[in-house]
Design a protein that fits this description.
three-stranded antiparallel beta sheet; 6 helices
Length: about 130
């Protein structure tokens, strides 16, 4: 029996709960600690690769490269190469990236507000 594949509707593509949705793929790309920290670090600035690496403590050259490519692929970061020797490469948030940054900022605020509560809960859990 042959069945015809029907293209998902826009609503299906936007459903992050569906394993095959575009939304889940995008969510997976941006919902990792490095991508969120990169978005926060770039902020309203335009930064070079080495400046970004210095801003995001603990990130390796490889992880920064991979995450910048993912963010660029998803249209959240813009990469500009200046024709100098050696080439100067800068990164800045796009409009969707700046919109996402508002959410990242809210997550950072939430973390600061609830850090003590989380530490207390972890301690209780670990000694139980």
């Amino acid at each position: 029996m042959v069945t015809k594949q029907v293209k998902d509707s826009a609503e299906d593509e936007a459903d992050v709960r569906r394993a095959d949705s575009l939304a889940r793929e995008i969510f997976s790309d941006i919902a990792n600690k490095w991508a969120l920290l990169i978005i926060e670090a770039v902020g309203d600035h335009t930064l070079r690769f080495t400046e970004l690496r210095d801003e995001v403590e603990g990130i390796s050259h490889k992880m920064l490269t991979q995450n910048l490519r993912l963010l660029e692929r998803n249209g959240l970061v813009e990469r500009t190469v200046h024709p100098t020797v050696p080439p100067r490469v800068e990164y800045a948030l796009t409009e969707p990236g700046r919109a996402l940054r508002a959410t990242v900022d809210a997550m950072c605020d939430w973390t600061h507000r609830h850090l003590t509560d989380i530490e207390t809960a972890r301690h209780r859990f670990d000694i139980a």
